[in-house]
Amino acid sequence: MAPRYAPSLRSRMPPLAIVLQVSFIVLFAFFVETGDPEEGDEKFINSYANFQDVHVMVFLGFGFLASFLVRYGFSSVGFSMLVAAMAVQWATLLNGFLLTSSPSWKIRIKMKSLVDAEICASSALLAMGAVHGKTNPVQLLLMSLMEVTGFVINQWLIHSLFKTMSSIMSLHVFGTLFGVMTSWVLYRTENMPKHEKEKFDSKSGLFAMFGTLFLWMFWPSFNSALVKYKIIAYGTYLSLAVSTVTAMAVSALSSPTGKMNLVHIQGSILAGGVATGIAVTAVPWMDMTIGFCAALLATLGFRYLKGHMLHAFEIHDTRGVLNVHAIPGILGYLAYLLIRLVRLEDTTVAVRFAVNHICILLITVSMSLVLGMFTGFLIKWSFWKPHQDRKCFDDQAFWEFPHLAVRK
């Protein structure tokens, strides 16, 4: 008979978290300085406003978006915050060492550094969505460190080879495929066809919609922080509006009962913001068209592709991040490539541009899949005390519930 309670993480989670945190403090003491002498008060205020929007998305939006499971609300919000808080520290160090050239090995923190670190944390949270509810906090900490490391190395490699940055494409594609591949390695037969606790109710659905609305409202700022063309905020706003209408219509149209699915809509209404941020068209009707296509693919993916991935490939993507981020992300990248090729008159330049950007996409996809598989085998190790199948999607494996305590 299986044990009643999940294995205690007292000997795993606290030592790992404390060792990592103390190590980061030591590294920051030797290598990190605060302040930018060229940053005036006005520039600081403008940068801080942008940072604050991204900050709200990372620590509030993504956490509550993941709280749709009826018995996994504490873990959704709490573990998202834990992963993001650890990831931003590690990302600050890696970005400083690999992407900032300094002969003295000193990292100078400014607002852009914090925004870049939170972008890396966002990528880790996307990867976490694919294994949502099936991993313990020890596994999530290790997974986030591996994902951020791979994400930054991928950025450094692309910058070194092609003299360009593709952080917004890598954010969605790398993070999602990394998580999907990790989920494939961690596949549990008990999740087939669907775990008994993988469901939502009116309360959990409302909390998740609360997180979705925060992401929806701040997504224009999120794209503006990643793209040098600040005009992208206008197109993102329009694309998100189109995505909302399209997602609700397609969800009802594809339902056998003609009703909308709240979980599908929570992800699909963000797909337009993902695709538009990568496409960077600066043309309103193009942004709206891309938002329409992205929401259409995302909603149909939730309705049909998610179940097919589980049955055919044994990939259990809990939050459907493949539909919300990877597919719209690749769609936006292909749209970006096509639009730029049409605008180029020199055939040689166009061919070189196409080859370079296709290589960037292939490198990102390859690195995410390989590293995601490696991470899956690493955190699958029994030393990290993964919980039993019947304890998946359940807060009681990790959190105290005083009203359920056993009195002696």
Automatic annotation (TrEMBL):
Keyword Transmembrane helix on entry: yes
Membrane topology classification: Multi-pass membrane protein
Domain of life: Eukaryota
Protein localization: Membrane
UniProt keywords, alphabetically: Membrane, Transmembrane, Transmembrane helix
GO CC term, one of those recorded: plasma membrane
Similarity annotation: Belongs to the ammonium transporter (TC 2.A.49) family. Rh subfamily.
Primary role: Functions as an ammonia transporter. May play a role in the elimination of ammonia in the gill.
Stated name of the protein: Rh blood group, D antigen
Organism: Astyanax mexicanus (Blind cave fish)
Higher taxonomy: Eukaryota, Metazoa, Chordata, Craniata, Vertebrata
